[in-house]
Amino acid sequence: MTEITIRPLSQSDRADWQRLWTAYLTFYETKLPEEVYAVTWKRLFTAGEFEPKGFIATLDGRAVGLTHYLYHRSCWSEKNNCYLQDLFADLEVRGKGVGAALIEAVKQEAGKIGVKNVYWMTHETNATARKLYDHVARRTGFIEYDLL
């Protein structure tokens, strides 16, 4: 297998990013209006401590995965926490290390600024992803609640 390359998103990645993020949203049976795509893309390139950031994964020169992450304050630490908000790998490359490589890239990037807590959520029915997550991280036991 060719080596997976992980790099920060660049402006030239717009079409690949939109294809991958759309596939991610489709997986979660979600659709977003074009305005949300536009503002998210803009935010990914807006300077600021709390603006979202992103990585793209390529394999054989083709974009096959992405992640979005952001930093936020915590009352439990002097350092920020890092929330890995979105993680997606194309179906044909699942199980080949793309997801793990994207998670590791976020962990390494967060570590550069002293962030120790990188965390994320997934749906309880996402068995494929949970196999990876159980391998690379610890399950905290916390349950999410929403006011939506």
Molecular structure report:
The chain has 148 residues and is an alpha+beta fold. The chain has one domain: Gcn5-related N-acetyltransferase (GNAT) (Aminopeptidase). Helix content is 34%, strand content 22%. The protein is built from 4 helices and 5 strands, in the order βααβββαβα. Strands 1-2-3-4-5 form a 5-stranded mixed beta sheet, with helices on both faces. Strand 2 and strand 3 form a beta hairpin. The protein starts with a strand and ends in a 12-residue tail after the last helix. The model has no long low-confidence stretch (mean pLDDT 94).
Task: Give descriptors for this structure.
single chain, 148 residues, alpha+beta, Aminopeptidase, 5-stranded mixed β-sheet, 22% strand, acyltransferase, GNAT_dom, Diverse_Substrate_AcTransf
The CATH topology turns out to be Aminopeptidase
Q: What does the radius of gyration come to?
A: 15 Å
Number of helices: 4
Residue share in β-strands:
15-25%
- Estimate the helix proportion, in percent: 25-40%
Instruction: Report the CATH C-level class.
Output: Alpha Beta
N-C termini distance: 43 Å
Give a count of the beta strands, DSSP E runs of length 2 or more: 5
Ranges where pLDDT stays below 50 over 5 or more residues in a row are: none
CATH architecture: 3-Layer(aba) Sandwich
- Specify the CATH homologous superfamily: Gcn5-related N-acetyltransferase (GNAT)
Overall pLDDT metric: 94
State the domain count: 1
Oligomeric state of this protein: single chain
Protein name: GCN5-like N-acetyltransferase
Pfam families: Acetyltransf_1
Keywords: Acyltransferase, Transferase
Organism: Mesorhizobium amorphae CCNWGS0123
